[in-house]
C-alpha cells in the first residue's frame, strides 16, 4: 500500500480497536496481541473458539489519496482479490496459515484466522526449552514450506519469528504473507520500516539488505510501483535471520542500524554461540550480502540431508505430521474462503469445523 497509507492510518492512541471488534456480531474482544500502527491484531472468541482478528482502520472519508480512498471510504477490493489469489495458491502447501475470512466494511477491513498456541519468538523462551532435534524439526518445516512456496512463485516478504506460529506439538504455521507491504524501503526514512516491519517494536530487522534503497521516498515509491517484486533470495535472507535467532536463544542478529552497517561491510553478526557448525554454515550462506550467493530452500534441504536433518524427516515424519495437522490449514475447499463486501455473506470454515453461513448485514451493527 506504500507510503501513503502509513501517513493516513490513525494512530493506536486515537482509536479504540475494541469498538471496531464490537461491530462484528458474535465476535468477542479478548486481548490485543500487537502494538502495530498498521494492522491492529486482537485475540477474540467466536462460537468456534479463539480467533485472531487483524483490523485495518480505514482513513476517514474526508481524506483522499490516489490509492483507493474516496468519499465512500478507503476501498480494499484490490487487496481482497490479491488475498484471495494468495489463499488459493497456499491450499495444499503444508505449514502455512492463510486468512480464512476477510471483511471489507466502510470503516475498517478485517482479516480473520484461527488462534495458534505459540509464535516462535515466544516458544524459544518458554519451558520446556526446545531440544536440538526439535529446533532442527522446526527449521526443516520452514525450509520445506519455503521450497514449495517458491516453486509456486509465492514469496512471503516478512518472515520473522512472530510470523512463525507453532502448535503445542511443534507444527509450524507461517502466517502474514506481506503482499501489502512495500518491497523496497528508503534507507533514509526508518519510519516506513517501523510502520510496516517493526510492529513488535523490538527494532529487529529481518528485511534483506537489497530491499533498502539509497533514494528518497518518492523515488522508492516509484520503484515499488514499477518493479516491486519480491523474490526467493529475499525470503531466504529473512529465514536465515529467523534460524539464527532460534539458535541464539532469541537474540536477533540485525537491528536496523546494524543492517545498514552490514550493507557497508562494517558489521557481521556473531554466530559463535551456535555450536552446530553445519547450522552456522547454513545461516552464513542464507544471510550472504550478495543475493546470488544464497541457495534455494530446496538446495539447503538437499545439501544438509543426513548432516543437519535426519533422513526420516524427509521419508516419513513430515508427511505423517502433515496428515495429522493438515486439517488446521486445509479448510476443505477454496470455495469456503469468502471475501465479502458490505452486502455479502460470511463463512467460517477453519479447523475442519463445519462452516456457518451468516448474513453479513447482520454481522455489522452499523
Ligand atoms: N493466529 C495467531 N495465533 C496466535 N498468535 C498470533 C496469531 N497471529 C498473530 N499472532 C501473534 O500476535 C502478535 C501480533 O501479531 P501481528 O501479526 O500483528 O504482529 P507481527 O507479526 O509482529 O507483525 P506483522 O503485522 O508484520 O505480521 C505476534 O506476537 C504474533 O505472533
Ligand atoms: Mg504477524
From TrEMBL:
Enzyme Commission number: 2.7.11.1
Keyword terms of this UniProt record: ATP-binding, Kinase, Nucleotide-binding, Repeat, Serine/threonine-protein kinase, Transferase, WD repeat
Membrane topology: Lipid-anchor
One Pfam family cited in the UniProt record for this chain: Pkinase
Sample GO molecular function, one term: protein serine/threonine kinase activity
Record carries keyword Zinc: no
Domain of life (superkingdom): Eukaryota
GO biological process, one term: protein targeting to vacuole
The Protein kinase domain, residue ranges: 27-321
SMART domains: S_TKc
Main localization category: membrane
Subcellular location: Endosome membrane; Golgi apparatus, trans-Golgi network membrane
GO cellular component: endosome membrane; Golgi apparatus; late endosome; nucleus-vacuole junction; phosphatidylinositol 3-kinase complex, class III, type I; phosphatidylinositol 3-kinase complex, class III, type II
PANTHER family (alphabetical): PHOSPHOINOSITIDE 3-KINASE REGULATORY SUBUNIT 4
Name used for this protein in its record: non-specific serine/threonine protein kinase
Amino acid at each position: 500500500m506504500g507510503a501513503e497509507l502509513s501517513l493516513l492510518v490513525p494512530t493506536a492512541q486515537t482509536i479504540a480497536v475494541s469498538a471496531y471488534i464490537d461491530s462484528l456480531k458474535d465476535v468477542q474482544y479478548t486481548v490485543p496481541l500487537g502494538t502495530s500502527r498498521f494492522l491492529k491484531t486482537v485475540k477474540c472468541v467466536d462460537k468456534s473458539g479463539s480467533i485472531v482478528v487483524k483490523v485495518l482502520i480505514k482513513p476517514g472519508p474526508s481524506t483522499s489519496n490516489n490509492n483507493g480512498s474516496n468519499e465512500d471510504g478507503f476501498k480494499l477490493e484490490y487487496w481482497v482479490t490479491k488475498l484471495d489469489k494468495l489463499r488459493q495458491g497456499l491450499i495444499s502447501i503444508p505449514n502455512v496459515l492463510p486468512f480464512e475470512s476477510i471483511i471489507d466494511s466502510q470503516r475498517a477491513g478485517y482479516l480473520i484466522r484461527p488462534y495458534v498456541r505459540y509464535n516462535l519468538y515466544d516458544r524459544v523462551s518458554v519451558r520446556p526449552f526446545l531440544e536440538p532435534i526439535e529446533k532442527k524439526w522446526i527449521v526443516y518445516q520452514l525450509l520445506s514450506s519455503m521450497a514449495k512456496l517458491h516453486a509456486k512463485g509465492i514469496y512471503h516478504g516478512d518472515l520473522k519469528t512472530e510470523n512463525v506460529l507453532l502448535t503445542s506439538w511443534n507444527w509450524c504455521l507461517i502466517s502474514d504473507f506481506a503482499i501489502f507491504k512495500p518491497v523496497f524501503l528508503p534507507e533514509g526514512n526508518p519510519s516506513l520500516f517501523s510502520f510496516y516491519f517493526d510492529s513488535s517494536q523490538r527494532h529487529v530487522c529481518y528485511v534483506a539488505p537489497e530491499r533498502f534503497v539509497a533514494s528518497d521516498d518518492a523515488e522508492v515509491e516509484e520503484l515499488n510501483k514499477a518493479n516491486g517484486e519480491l523474490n526467493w533470495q529475499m525470503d531466504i535472507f529473512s529465514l536465515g535471520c529467523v534460524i539464527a535467532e532460534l539458535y541464539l536463544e532469541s537474540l536477533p542478529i540485525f537491528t536496523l542500524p546494524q543492517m545498514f552497517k552490514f550493507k557497508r561491510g562494517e558489521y557481521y553478526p556473531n554466530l559463535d554461540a551456535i555450536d552446530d557448525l553445519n547450522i552456522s554454515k547454513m545461516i552464513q550462506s542464507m544471510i550472504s550480502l550478495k543475493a546470488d550467493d544464497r541457495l534455494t530452500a530446496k538446495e539447503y534441504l538437499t545439501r544438509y540431508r543426513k548432516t543437519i536433518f535426519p533422513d526420516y524427516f524427509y521419508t516419513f515424519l513430515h508427511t505423517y505430521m502433515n496428515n495429522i495437522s493438515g486439517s488446521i490449514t486445509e479448510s476443505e475447499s477454496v470455495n469456503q474462503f469468502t471475501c465479502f463486501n458490505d452486502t455479502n455473506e460470511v463463512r467460517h470454515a477453519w479447523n475442519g469445523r463445519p462452516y456457518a453461513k451468516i448474513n453479513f448485514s447482520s454481522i455489522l451493527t452499523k
